[in-house]
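Following up on my earlier thread - several people asked me to post the actual chain instead of describing it. Fair enough. Here it is, all 196 residues.
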Amino acid sequence: ATTITGGVLNNGAVSAASNGGNATAIRIGALASVPGLRNTGTIEAGGGSVAANQVRAVVIDAGGSLAGITNSGRITANAAGEGSAVAIADLSGSLRTIENSGTISAVAAKPAAGRAIAIDLAANTSGATIRQSAATPTGKPSITGDIRLGSGSDLLEVSAGTITGAMQLGAGSNRLLASGEALLTGDATFGSGADT
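Reply from S.P.:
Thanks for posting it. Predicted structure:
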């Protein structure tokens, strides 16, 4: 097992690129534990070609652990061809908080259901919080791509900027809060809980 006690800070550039294949910029593997990831720079992945290709900027494998992400920079995934793009993919169910005042984006060259996912927290069963706010009075943060939440009671709170993509809040008693100059474009799907 590996533990990074102080977490991870990126204020530069971390990138992964492939010519017609998979690409992952940051991967938290099984048995790795990281309390937090703070990004003020750029984390980006690009590649893809066929439908089996996955392009991911940040991924937490099953058995790994990453409790929170704070982003004031750019976290982006761009898939070519029929590949799928995921900016943040948590397969462990451990990611509980995402604070965004920058850009989180997943773009697929050939859009289709499930091919461009900005944030995938579907494995989370205990509840997760995603907050988007402006770091400055003129800041315009954004999340582009679908958002998928798990079976816990989740909170999606947006007080500035834009969210463009489908929002699937999953089961649980979920809350979707939009205020200020926030603009949400896309369908919001709630589960069977007491949602607001």
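The CA atoms of residues 62 and 184 lie 31 Å apart. That should answer part of your original question.
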